[in-house]
Structure formats: structure tokens, C-alpha cells
Write a structure and sequence with these properties.
Chain lengths: ~240, ~230
């Protein structure tokens, strides 16, 4: 579904990604862990072209992102992205946040988009918040709306960049529960997170990144129990 | 006293003229300012540079000089250019009349001037919106244009209302400079009526009062709009 080949990304002189190779199969949940600054966000942002790779190639369902003929907006419409800081549109209600992209990008009728938006709000457990503006929602609720907003485009892949890192601890669970439900439905996902319990439970595969490279990857058991890589060990001992 | 009373209708007409030229220039200045402000943020360097040159020129030179340049300078440039074309290339004569109508010169100079200030206000407004907003919109598949139109600008409009209000008030007062090219707005009417009535103090205090009424009304209007938009969500 996604193939990444020799991905490099530099910001001016700073080389952040130093040659990433990986593949994500359909219905797979890949959890990305690693110390802060190791390039996890940059990696996800390259996949939906919020950052322009310096070298290497990314293929989404066989379509190369670096091909100038590729319509990047069409690709992005197929990739849902959820940010650490939610990034809901503050001037729109929860329902409008979700319905906007289907209306503007998919050219769906307002009525149809609203039906979809209501269904998604129900799915994330917020059907009573349809007409509420983001600043009246808790962090956990905002993030659930943000997930619904991404899902409204009916994406083939969901990218999560530390979706629970800016939440109060008591709200982490409700957001992870929504992501777990998606995993059960077979959604293909890449999730950057520091929630190791979640990684173990939901991840089909765990990727450990450090200093711009994939240092280890394997099943949760392999990563959390048998892997011997010293950098992974140091990281896990700090975080667990 | 009688003589002073007779100036009032004239001054009121002047005030209306001031209001008219101000509102037209503000409207045109906003359209121009929005376009130039966005041009300043363009991905293309030439467009950014062109926008910067325009802004720097009109913010960096006095409005009075801009008025002279447009009212006296442009017709002169046109006349000289035509003369040159006729002499060098035997071009037929296109223009016989060079003078710019004073109203047109007034609108052009005030709009160009306020457009430069408004462009900077819009640019700052757009830049004040968190980068994550653009990224979220783009990640949903919106084009840059759509993201600007549906996500960034609606938020930026709220941010720019107070500075925009200040600019409107400044422009309204600055239209008094148009008196120097004989545009009969409030200040010019004041000069003219003082000329035949010799009632300098009553007239100038009335003129000042009329400006105050207009700027005060304008600032109330801006406050009201700001409040409406705030409670809007
Ligand atoms: N837009 C940018 N400009 C310059 N440096 C950046 C930019 N984005 C990220 N970086 C740098 O790239 C490195 C990796 O960042 P990031 O991908 O956010 O890491 P992680 O998500 O693993 O914490 C950091 O050193 C960060 O400072
Ligand atoms: Mg990060």
C-alpha cells in the first residue's frame, strides 16, 4: 500500500531522515516509536507531502509522490492525518469541521456531507457535540473530532502523529479507544506514539526510529521482549 | 453669525464628499490590499518582490507627494511620452486632453496609498494564523487556494478588523490632503468658505467637529463589527 525507498530529508544543513526504507501493507497497523527529534513526525509528514523529501521515493498504491504528474491533492485526500495539536478549524462547529473537506474537495452535497459527519460524530461518541465550536470541547473531544474529520474523506490510510501527546492523562484512553476501533475495522494506519501499551496491543508491527533511521522493526513481541539493540534498550528503559 | 450659518450647508456637503471619497478608497484599498497582501505570501519570488516594491513605495513616501505625482506627474509623463513617440516613430496622436479629472486622481491616490497599508495588515493577519491550520486543510486534500479561502482568511478577517479600523480612520483624515489639488472635500470647503466669510475660528472648529463625528462613527462601526464577529463563535 505504501512503499518508502531510501527517503532522505534535510532542513538546510540538518539531516533529519537519513535513508528510510519500509513498506506498509493494506490493513496493517504500524506503530512508530523513538526518542523525540528522531524524525518520526518528519517521516509521516513526508508521506503526505507536508514536507518535500530531499531524496528517495514514496509510492502510495504504486503511485510515485515525486512524479510531477501526480496530483498531490488527490493523494492527500486518500491519506487521513491526525496531528498532535488537533488543528481543528476554530471558526467552524464540530459538524462543519468534519463536513468541510467532503463538500469542498469531494464536491459532495451539503446534505450528504452532514449525514456522513453525523455518523462519524456518533462513531467517535460525540453526537451531542455537533453544533459546538472547538474551544468548548476538551482536548480528548477535539482529537476525536479531528479523527472524524480525517475519516470523512474515507481515506485508505490514516496517519497519526502523537495523537495523545498533548492530552491530559485522563483523556488518553478515549482517543486510543477510537483508534483501536479503527484497527479492528481493518484500517491501514501508521501511528507515532509513546503509548507502549497501545503499541503492544494494537500494533501489527513496531518500527523503532533513532537519529533519522529505522533501527529496529518487528512484531511487538520482538521489539518489546527479544530485541537486543542497545539504543532500543536505552529508549525502552526510559519510557517504560 | 449669519455669515457663519450660511457656510454650514457647504461644509456639510464637503463632509459628504470626504465620506464618499473615503469609503470608495477604503473599498478599493481593501480589494487591492487583499490581493497584494496575498501576493506578498506567494510561492513565486517575482510576485512577492513586485508586491514588496509597491508596498514600500506607497508606505515610504508621503501621501501628499503621491497625490502630486498622480495628479500632475502622470499627465506630464503621458504628454512627454506621446511627444517622444510622435517625433521618433511618427505615431499618430492619441490624446489631446491630458489633465486627469480631480475626482479620479483623488480616488487613485487614496486607494493606492491605503492599499499598501491594508496589504501589510492582511499579510500579518494571515501569518498570525497557526501553521497547523494550513497543514490540516492541505492534509484533507484542499488546494492552497481552498485552504486560504475556507480556513485561513475567515480566521484572519477577525484578527485584522482592529488594525483595519485604524487604517480607515487614518485614511479618512488623510483625505484632507486632497484639498491641495482642489478636490472639494471638507477641508477644501473650509478654506473656500473662510475665504469669503473671514470667520476662521467658527469654520475651522466646525470642520474639526465634522471630522470628529465621522471618525467617531467609523470607530463605533468597527467596534460593533468586532463584537459581532466575536460572539459569532
Ligand atoms: N520545519 C523544520 N525546519 C527545521 N528543522 C526541523 C523542521 N521540522 C523538524 N525539524 C527538526 O528535525 C528534527 C526531527 O524532528 P521531528 O521529525 O519532529 O522528530 P520527532 O517527531 O521524532 O520528535 C528535529 O531536530 C527538528 O528540530
Ligand atoms: Mg514529533
Amino acid at each position: 500500500m505504501i512503499r518508502v525507498e531510501n527517503l532522505h530529508k534535510s532542513f538546510k544543513k540538518l539531516e533529519v531522515l537519513k535513508g528510510i526504507d519500509c513498506q506498509i501493507k493494506a490493513n496493517e497497523v504500524v506503530v512508530i516509536i523513538g526518542p523525540s527529534g528522531s524524525g518520526k513526525s518528519t517521516f509521516l509528514r513526508c508521506i503526505n507531502m507536508l514536507e518535500q523529501p530531499t531524496a528517495g521515493n514514496i509510492y502510495i498504491e504504486g503511485v510515485s509522490l515525486s512524479d510531477p504528474l501526480t496530483n498531490i491533492n488527490h493523494i492527500r485526500a486518500e491519506l487521513g492525518m491526525v496531528f498532535q495539536r488537533f488543528n481543528l478549524f476554530p471558526h467552524k462547529t464540530a459538524l462543519e469541521n468534519i463536513a468541510m473537506a467532503p463538500i469542498k474537495v469531494r464536491k459532495m452535497s451539503k446534505a450528504d456531507a452532514k449525514i456522513i459527519a453525523y455518523d462519524l460524530l456518533e462513531k467517535v461518541g460525540l453526537s451531542d457535540k455537533a453544533d459546538v465550536y472547538p474551544d468548548q470541547l476538551s482536548g480528548g473531544q477535539q482529537q476525536r473530532v479531528a479523527i472524524a474529520r480525517a475519516l470523512a474523506m474515507n481515506p485508505k490510510v490514516m496517519l497519526f502523529d502523537e495523537p495523545t501527546s498533548s492530552l491530559d492523562p485522563e483523556m488518553v484512553g478515549e482517543v486510543l479507544a477510537v483508534i483501536k476501533d479503527l484497527a479492528k475495522e481493518g484500517m491501514t494506519m501508521m501511528v507515532v506514539t509513546h503509548e507502549m501499551g497501545f503499541a503492544r496491543e494494537v500494533g501489527d508491527r513496531v518500527i523503532f526510529m533513532d537519529e533519522g533511521l529505522i533501527v529496529e522493526e518487528g512484531t511487538p513481541e520482538e521489539i518489546f521482549q527479544t530485541a537486543k539493540n542497545p539504543r532500543l534498550q536505552t529508549f525502552l528503559s526510559k519510557i517504560l | 453669525m449669519d455669515v457663519v450659518l450660511r457656510t454650514y450647508p457647504i461644509l456639510l456637503w464637503g463632509a459628504l464628499s470626504t465620506l464618499q471619497i473615503s469609503l470608495i478608497s477604503i473599498a478599493l484599498g481593501c480589494v487591492l490590499g487583499l490581493a497584494v497582501g496575498l501576493a506578498r505570501l506567494s510561492g513565486y519570488r517575482i510576485i512577492r518582490t513586485a508586491a514588496s516594491i509597491y508596498i514600500d513605495f506607497f508606505r515610504g513616501t508621503p501621501l501628499l507627494v503621491q497625490i502630486f505625482l498622480i495628479y500632475f506627474g502622470l499627465p506630464h509623463l503621458l504628454r512627454q511620452s506621446q511627444l517622444y513617440l510622435i517625433e521618433s516613430y511618427n505615431m499618430p496622436q492619441f490624446f489631446t486632453q491630458f489633465a486627469l479629472p480631480v475626482f479620479l486622481a483623488a480616488v487613485v491616490s487614496c486607494s493606492l496609498n491605503s492599499g499598501a497599508y491594508i496589504a501589510e495588515i492582511f499579510r500579518a493577519g494571515v501569518q498570525s494564523i497557526e501553521r497547523g491550520q494550513m497543514e490540516a486543510a492541505r492534509s484533507l486534500g484542499m488546494t492552497t487556494r481552498q485552504a486560504m479561502r475556507y480556513v485561513i482568511l475567515p480566521q484572519a478577517f477577525k484578527v485584522v478588523i482592529p488594525p483595519l479600523g485604524n487604517e480607515f480612520i487614518a485614511l479618512l483624515k488623510d483625505t484632507s490632503l486632497l484639498s491641495v489639488i482642489g478636490f472639494e472635500e471638507l477641508t477644501r470647503k473650509g478654506q473656500l468658505t473662510v475665504g469669503w466669510s473671514y470667520a476662521a475660528f467658527p469654520i475651522w472648529i466646525t470642520v474639526a467637529f465634522l471630522y470628529l463625528v465621522m471618525t467617531f462613527g467609523l470607530s463605533r462601526l468597527v467596534d460593533y463589527t468586532e463584537r459581532r464577529l466575536k460572539t459569532g463563535d
